[in-house]
Every structure is written in structure tokens, then in C-alpha cells.
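ok so heres the complex, two chains, lmk if somethin looks off
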Amino acid sequence: MKRTIFLWLFVGLVGFVLLPWHMTDRGFTSFDWMRDDAPSTGLMLVMQGGFWWLLAPLLAGLAAAAIQLKIQTPVQRSKLTLWAAAAGLFLTALQGLVIVRAGPRLFETFLTGETVMGGQPGFGIGAGVVVIALLFVLTNALSQTGKGQGDAFVVSMIGLIIALVAVFVFYPVSHILVRAFEVQGGYSLTEFFPRFFDSDLWGLGCVIGSRSCGTAINSLFLATLTGAGTTLLGLSFALIFTRTDFRAKKVLRVLTIIPIITPPFVIGLALILLFGRNGTITELAADLFGMEKTRWLYGFWGVYFAQLLSFTPIAFLVLIGVVQGVSPSMEEASQTLDADRWQTFRYVSLPLMRPGLANAFLLGFIESLADFGNPLVLGGNFGVLSTEIYFAIVGSVADPAKAAILAIALLTLTLSAFLIQRSWVGKKSYATITGKADSGQNAALSPLVRTACYATALPWAALTFVVYSMIVFGSFVKLWGYDHTFTFAHYVRAFGMDFSNGWRFSGVAWDSYFTTLTISTIAAPLTALVGLSTAYLLVRQKFVGKDAFEFSTMLSFAIPGTVIGVSYIMAFNFPPIELTGTSIILIIVFVFRNMPVGVRGGIAAMSQLDNSLDEASITLGANSFTTVRRVILPLMGPAILAALTYSFVRAITSVSAVIFLVSAKHNMATSFIVGRVENGEFGIAIAYSAVLIITMLAAILLLQLLIGTRRLRRTDRVQQPA
Amino acid sequence: MKRTNVISAAILMATSAMASAALADELNVVCSAEQDWCDLMVAAFEAENPDTDVLMVRKSTGETLAQVRAEAGNPKIDVWWGGTGDPHLIAAEEGLTQPSGVSTDELLGWARNMSDISEARTVGIYAGALGIAYNSEILDEKGIAPPACWADLADPRFAGEIQVANPNSSGTAYTELATFVQLFGEDEAFTRLAAVGANVNSYTKSGSAPSKAAARGETGVSIGFMHDMVKLAASGFPLEIVAPCEGTGYEVGAVSIIEGARNFEGAQAWVEFALRADVQSRAPEVQSFQVPSNSNAEVAPESPDLASIKLIDYDFATYGSSETRARLLARWDEEVGDPNPQE
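and the predicted structre for the whole thing:
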């Protein structure tokens, strides 16, 4: 233990003495900071630059070292070290927040002098290393005081994740939420409540009167139905995959993946071309059955339809692992006790899938609330919170206070859904993967359930197939929906290559394509790592404030992208953390926005793993790190795959958060596509989307090959109906 | 001793060489016009100024304004080119942009007007008139006579066929609202808007959405900017464009330099470049049919001829101000658009 603390103190010292404390203009890797005459490392800044306030972290580190060496009583030693590290962190953060580029923000009378007024740039790599070192000294000391069963690895992980969530979720989001309480020249609570409970938000006109409902009620209604619908569809697919002998499973698998890898707006556009007033299917129905051509697609039903198409795959990704995990032994036991296949499904399998169902519903619900593309294209007069928030920020009358209030309404809905989900899952054990020998076969579905699964899943699959055929078709014709002359022009414009003068990427889309791929490839593993670590802590460890911790990890997912985007600019455009215009800010926004999917999937999968597996490993002398690596991770295959896939894909397809954060150097594919769609150039937008879809499909298949399938039992068999 | 000198001299030379290599100016441009036009401008500017590396990103005016506001004090953008003038005027009003000091002598009256009311913080680069578009196939099929005036839109024959944006979210629709007020007087304007509203099938969020819907036959008639409609018609959709007989309003696209821009000289060069006649004459190459602001620039034959359209004397100073805007929008919510419309 003592060794670990000294190791981190040493790392911190290296960061302080050798690395540049502040952000360097050219970036760290150019090593300009080494050649410059100006002081750059923390130590040099204190000694030569007059940045006396940077002494705080150094003193804290030295104090911690002295305490470790001098004090003999273990409890007192760790407590004092804890305080020293905490003080160091606090002072480092404080100096960063107070002394910024244009002089101090607070304590103007107290902090004077030339260097203080000159201010300082944002934190650089040196500051980062020092902060992390101090954080780990803190957590190690904390674990020595007996917290977290004295497990330094667990406590350090909790500390790190809390710190990351605080800095990259709470800190930016607070910038915008505080606006909800803003009135002319101050803050007020009394102004907030009437605005929050306004009938524009919560009106029940559609239930009791002839007017329509408030936007929050609309959102709630839509999200509930979407959550329920996607969970049902996802479950049908998962059951077909694991419990039937359906022939075309491979085709089905691809169809269930494609919608999440579809860039925004594309599904909405395809639906308009199929079901709009002038759409292909509408025309067909009008010709064949004399049905009137209506605009039914524009409104609640259109949005619901599009959301079902878009979000079912997420439910499927969560559920497939869970449905696979339900142990055949339980089902066999049930059948031995003379239950029929329906009873076994209803009273044994289904209850065991509860965590999966609950998490799938929650994800569908939240996705629907935060979805912005589909309501924008298909919403018509049906107003939902996410689009209202977007236009409160970028509309012709910008009203950040209104945006903040709407965002709080949205968060209220999410929090309620989260709490209901928690109480429904309850405290029961859902562990079915126990490590004990079970070589049984999964019960086949009863005819009724099987028919129901086919009846819900197959039409959906057919529709998906039609929609995507349309999209591919659209990329090869001159003017989608009007002039169907075959052409390659869109692909050539977007992805042309010029061979005349050596080999050159001349297409207009290449730049954003490469940026997008690079950033998503970096973001995906990080997202999976953070998400699954969090899931591990939540399922396997007990600590104070766990529920609040769990909810806080959901926060960034529940807040609409627009709000996240603007709050990231507000928070990270200025020192101490100045990230706008870099690719780092894009990676961070992806990691923290998509992490909840890793968390939910991880929780669902991990609740199935029996604690006795961990205990056996610990009893055999492994520590918790080894247990995670050798026992839990190999059993988490599907969850890891889901987290990786999802975060990779979301980084490529998300739009609303990204639109504020892209810069000329780091432009993303979606912002390129949206620009083209706004401009009415559907051909090139769709051609680009088609290329992205193929890229992502290839990446997903590659991931599946790399991770492989987990072997839970010797064979996965489905009982043959007798 | 000697050796250290040599080494330090070498280091000095190396660093200065690196510094000069990196001296090529970076100019950060946000472009709110169509992507192709943005690309054309960047390529043309870089061809003339090989030392400047133009970093351009395209964002809509609303998004740009939100970003400029959030970045105030430490902006990452130097110059904001293109997009409807209202957000540029708001940015000027809030002190987010700064005077460019570029001569406006060659410009037409409406472009200089922008500069006058914003204390030279923003300058007009193009104009686009507001108009009506209809899908000729749909109207033929339904046997509806095409509209010629704003007044026609209130006729019951267009029931459920008109689409227009919501002025709360769209600058295009706000221009329409302000145009009605200037044409007919405030009270009369709201009566007429409400009468048109009875025929509207939905108030979209985005200003260009109605014309796109009309192009694809999702709605029969749309209200929007004529240059957008011309572009859709030019790409093959059966869209006919009408300049309303009572007269119509227009938007002025603008260019502004952000307050605190890191590369002010570059930004200034960009504004000068953007106002030149030969540069503005190139817009039709990329299917942009707005009317250029430089009096010597060539106007494309496809562009709506502003001389033949009855243009009102649009009062940007009054109707661009936040105060008038808030009042008119509140009244619009009250009398025309129900914020919670019936399904």
C-alpha cells in the first residue's frame, strides 16, 4: 500500500517537474515547449515565471510524502495523507478556476500583481498527470482507512469515475441548467416554478379537451410507447435467435444491426418517400384500393414509427446477451416439475430476463426522449421536448432559460423512469451463470409465443429491408423520388479518387470520413472501458451513495445532444480546461454520452453472473483486478461487444451534440450529411450514408470475430419440439 | 563555452525556421450559406492568398449565433460569412462582432443599409426575396387554380395545402410575418395571417422545409425564399414560383467579423474579397441564385429579378430589433399559431 502511494507521488512529481503544466499552442507532441526559453513545467513556472500559486500541488505532494514517512500509526497516517491530497486537488482546481486568461475571476482585491493579472492558459499534460497522481494518492489513502473493504483497486476506480463524471458531465451541464433560474440580473426560485409548471409543458388537453397536450406530456407518451415497443420487438428477435431454428438468422442479424448504423434524417427521409402523401406505398394504396392520400405520417404516428425502426436494435443488443444467459438448468427443472413450455417461459425464463427487459425499456425510453432527428423531419405539429430545446437555443429567438427549463423537465422524466425501473427490478437475484456444470438445453418456445415472435419481428424486418433498399436505391439515382436515372455521380463526387497526378483523394467527403473513423475508433474502446467498469462497481461493489452515482452516469445520456453541445462550449472554451476546436473534445463528448449504454448492458449481463464465481476466485488468492480480468471479462463477451459496437456507431451517427463542437480541422461525417440534407442534396447525403453503413457493418463483423462468442456451456442447444 | 554557443545558435536557428514555416496564417471561417458556395469561396480565396490557410466549417445561422455567444470572450472563429441577416444584426447588437472597416462604396442601397444600422459591424452580401411556390402537378391533379397574391392563400381552395415555417424557430417565417405587418399594418396583418393559418397543414421548424416538401408533393403550396425555390426547380422538381402581387419582403445575407478575432487582418481580407464584384458573380456556378450586393456584379438569368418584383421598403432596423421581434412573436402565438395545436 505504502509503495503504491509513493509510486503515485513520484509520478506526480515527474509531471510537475518535467512536463509542461499548461496547454501548449502547438500541442504536446511537437516538443516546442522544450525548446522555448519561456518556463513551461510546473517547477520552472514557480521558480522563474512567478506563478507562485502553482506551488500548492507540490506542497501537498511533499506533505503527503512526509506524512507517509514520519507517522507510524496507520490510521492517522492514512487520514492525514488523505487530507493532504484532498487539499492539493482542491487548491489546484481553485487556482485553475480563479486565475484564467484575463486575470482572476474572484478575489480581485486579494489577488494582485503582474503575473496574476496576466492570467494563464488552460491545463496541459503536466497538470493532468499531477491531478491524477493526487487523486490516486487520495483513493489509496482512503482505502487504507478501511473504506471499500480496504480494496485499493476498487476505491481508485470509484474515485476516478466520479472525478471523470464530475468534470465532464456535471461541470458542463451545470453551466446551462443554472440558466433556468436566471432572471434579469440575478437568480430566483420563484420565477422558475411558474415557468416549469406551465401548461405548454404539462397540459393534458388531448385527454380532457380538444387541444393537444403539452410538449412534456407528448414526449412522455411517445417515450413510453417507444420504450415498450422496442423492448417487445427486441425480445422477439432475441427469442427467435436463441430459442428457435429459424433459417435466415444471419440475414435477420444484419437487419437488426443496420438501423443503429444509419445516420440521422435518413430513416425519416426514406419513410417520407414510402409513406408520405406522395410516397411510393401511398400511391400504390391509392391506385389499388382507392385509399385517400393523407399526411398521417407527419405527427405522432410517423415519429413513433421511425423511432421503432431506429431504436429496436438497442433493445435487441441488450436483450440477446440476457436471453442467452438464462440457464437451461432452470428451464429443465421447470419442465421436470411438469410445467409445459408456456408455463416455463412465463414463470421461469421471463422473470429471469427482468433486468434485461428493464434496461432495454429504460434505454428505449431515454433514446426516444432525446431523439431529435426523427421529430424534426416527421413531427409536423407534434411538439416534443428535444426539438423545442434545440429551437430554444438556435431558433429565431434564442432563450437559454427556456432551454434549461425544458431540459430540467426532460431530466425529471428520465429520473422518474429510472426510479420506476429500479423498483420493478427489485432486489431479487437474477444470477443464472453460476459456474456449476449445466449442460442442459434451452426450452423451445411454446407455439403461441413462437407465433407471436414471428408475427412481430418478421414484418418489422421486412419493413427495415424495404427502407434500406430504398436508401441504396436513392444513392444511385439522379434525384431521389423524382428522376430515377441511374448514376454514379454522387459516389464520384463524395469519394472520388484522382489518379492523374499520383494518388489523391479528390472526393469532397474524404476529410470528414477519415476524421470520423479516427475519432470513433479512439472513442469506442474508451467508452466500453468506462461503461463496463462503472457497471462492475454498481453490480459488484457496495459503497455509500451508489444510487446517486448510478443516476449520475445516466445523466449525460438523458440530456439532449444540443444541450450537451452548448454546455461543452460554455465550459471548455475557457481555462482551466480549454478544449474547443480540438479532436479531444469530440472524443470526450462521445465517451461520456455513450457510456450509459455500456453501463446498462454491463449491469444486465453482470447481474446474471453468480457472486460465487468472484468469491471462488478471491478465495483462491486472486485480487479483485485479477478476478475482473480472468473471470468476469471472459463471461462478458456480448456486453463488451454491445458496448464497443454501440459506442463506435454512435460516435459516427450522432449529430446534435457534435454540430456545435466540430471545427474546420475536425469535421464529422454527420455534420457534413446534415449540411447536404439542409441544402436539399439528398443524393450525395445518401451516398455518404451508404458508405458509412457499409464501413460500420464491416467494423462490427470484425469486432465480432475478434471478441468471439463466449462459451457458457459445452453446447448451446435448443430443445427439438417432440 | 564556444560549444554551448554553437549549440544554442543551432537551436535558435531551428526554432526560428520552424516558427517561420508555421507562420502561414490560419483563418477560421464559419459559413452559413450552401456548402458548395462555401467550398467555392474558400478555394477562390486560398488561390489569391496562398499564405493563408482557410479553415472553414459550415453551420446554420442559429447554430453559429449560439456558438458565438457561448464563445464570447475567447472566440475560435474569425469571420462569419453568409446566412440571413437577422442573426448577424443580433450579434452586432450584442457586441459579438466588430466593424470591419471595409469600404461599402460599390454596394447597393440595401447592403449599405445593413452596415449603417449595425454601425458597420455587418455588411450585406446578397439579397433574396420572399415568395410563394406551388407544386404544379399537385395543383393540376386537384384542380386548384395557382395563387398569385398573398390574399389568395386565405382562399378555402387551399385548405390543408399550405406549409410555412414557425416564426418562433425560423428566420424565414419571421421575415414573412414582418412583411405582412409592413404591407398591411399590424392589426390587418394578423387577421390575414390567421386566415392563411386556417389553410396551413403544419408550421415546420425549419424555414427551408416547406419548399422542399412542396417540391416532393408532400404539400401543395409553400412560403419561403425564392432563391431556394429556384434551386429546387432547377434540379428538376415541378415547382412554380410566384412573386406575390401585393409586394414582398426580402432577406439580406451578411458577413461579420467576430469581436476578438485572432486573425483580424485575414478576416478583413476575407470581407473585402467577399464584397468584390467578380467574386460575387461566381455564385451561380454552384447554383446559388441570390442577388449579389455589389452593383457591378453580374446577376444570373435564373435569379429572381428584384427590379420586376414589387419589393417593399423593408425596415430592418425596426423589425430586426429584439423588442419588436418579441412583441410580434407573442402576438403571433396568441392570434395565429396555437403553440399546442390540435392534432
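quick notes: Residues 57 and 88 of chain A are 5 Å apart (CA to CA). thats all i got rn
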